[in-house]
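re: ur question from earlier - yeah i can do the single chain one, its not a big deal. heres the input i used so u can compare w yours
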Amino acid sequence: MYGKTQRVGGVLLLWLEAANEFLLDHGVIGLIITAFAEASFFPLPPDVILVPLSLLNPKLSFLYAALATIASSFGGVFGAFLGFVLGRPLLERFAAKERVNKVARLFSRYGGWAVALAALTPIPYKVFTIAAGVFKVPIWVVFTASLAGRGLRFFMEALAVFLWGDQATAFISNYLGPVTITLAIIVIILAMLSSKKRHKN
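and the output i got, formated as tokens:
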């Protein structure tokens, strides 16, 4: 059983590597496709296309970040649509029931801020966009939160490439995680303040 699981994992890894190479070869189109698809069903993050493209042409890094942000935000809306139509069973295909219950509590407490949090951090974004549909978060909230969260993440990567060129990969590897976590904490604080204000009203 363990050997079979290893083989399946190996095949999946090879498939992801081939998909990454194929999409990277297609440049901007590959970036847009990856950013859209990752927000609803695809496992490959847009960062693996965005950063190499930006390194090839740092002057266009902000344009690439903008395209990735817009495509990912529309992908988030598509993910929410899938969640709305197909419901909780689809969500549970991407996450264990315990995690689904935790996501449900986040949406119950923070609403669209939960999407912004997932959009900003390495937390699987598609889990939250599909959940947004399952828990009937308004589409405009999903889109706006996606723009904010994904925009911050992708533009930070673009800025790093623009400022430091090839050395940006070290910054992204070592510091992007802590920076995004710090920003995520700020998002959570804002969400808590917004939630308290809403309850008072």
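The CA atoms of residues 20 and 45 lie 9 Å apart. not sure if urs matches, ping me
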